[in-house]
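Quick bug: HMCN1 protein output formatted oddly.
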Amino acid sequence: DAGDYKCVATNDAGVVERSLTLTLQSPPVITVEPVGTVVEAGATAMLNCQASGEPPPTIRWSRQGHPVVNDDRVSVLANGSLRIIAAQKEDTSEYECVARNLMGSVLVRVPLTVQGGPSHAKGSVIGNINDIEFGVAFLNATVTDSPDSEARVIQAKITNVPRSLGPAMRKLVSILSPVYWTTAKEMGEAMNGFTLTDAVFKRETQVEFATGEILRMTHIARGLDSDGALLLDVVVSGHVLQLQAVADIRVKDYTEDYIQTGPGQLYAHSTRLFTVDGVSVPYTWNHTITYDYTKGKMPFLVETLHASSITTEYDPLEETVAFQIHASIAKGERSNQCPAGFSLDSTGPYCSDIDECETRDTCQHECRNTLGSYQCTCPSGYRL
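Here's what came back:
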């Protein structure tokens, strides 16, 4: 019945008329309801909300009861949708769409979850392994949620790997450590590398095999590009256990402990196994990580990264090494205590390295302190 009406009165003396508009007011009704959304960090989140009513309702957004303020990243569009550009983990929250007019208001709540890291990574790998120089190998990785949502799945390929190195590189999962640490599924309050550093850090890695070979790697993570990809450069140098191309290699599940040793400083280490034709070969590796200390520190003194369901293979025709790994990160088993070889520094708090070499009877001749441990050495002509 709403519309324009005209009343006309007529007699012999003339005509008079009046016009009016009949408006039927109604309270707002949500016609397009926002739905719970999960986006990757760095992506754009869009929460849609539309309403009808008379007068036409205005739409406002709030976050846990506080009005959403427009800025460079967050804005309410003309159609009432809330847009968040370059979403950050801190944007994870419950949002409210409120439609209001003279007749009343209506509210609907919706959760937004911003996930542990970029969805893909790319970079270069240069250096030498077993005295074999290779030009520039290229690393490309994609990151997705596992079906059970208990881990992130990293699938990576390194191309342009010489056939003389391909079989040996099948066990070098550590070459991916910056990728899976940056993107690991965050359990509870634990932080992955992206949340902690914004994917800008330097990582020095040393891999040592039980057979004596040592390989060193330097990883430089340079943040995300405009497409949200982690940018990574890797330099490798040293030796690894040489393997036959036909050898059956299986990498066991493992964990890495990350220890906050100071502002912008982490130390990580792991001991693990891989099998060659059913024979177990132990090896260890450790990492030192430096990043911008103004980014803060981990919420725990120790966090543990879990790596599982690891597969590797080398394609000699394409000269490509392929990896797949499931990764998650959680607080350490003793997240509030410093591990052996470290002492609590209450200023952080941090876990400071203990210099075992300060004790005179630690070693008979020469002592060399290392992070979390130490080494005894002998003069020429002697052995431990």
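Actually, after a second look the formatting is fine. The helical segments are 166-169, 177-183, 193-197. Closing.
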